[in-house]
Amino acid sequence: MRLAWARPALNDLAGIRAFISRDDTGAAETFIRRLREAAERLRRFPESGSSREDLRTGLRSIPFERYILFYRLDIDRVVVVRVLHSTRDVSAIFDQD
Structural domains in the chain? Predict the structure, then answer.
């Protein structure tokens, strides 16, 4: 299975990197690398995340430290749609999408 990143998820990664980089650029790069590695595991275990039908049909999520990776399964790929801090009101965010 392939892994793809939707534009909003890539924007989320850029924002996370920028936020962490204000204190430590090296830590930001390490964190983003580890987060991407966590997402890569979805290629082998695409159904390992929790179903999030409460937010959107077909949506699943996995936690990563203080963040949540939201993704959906297509026929031949996993698509990461958002990466959000766990304290965010995710229902309001997905209502806007």
Answer: 2-96 (3.30.2310.20)
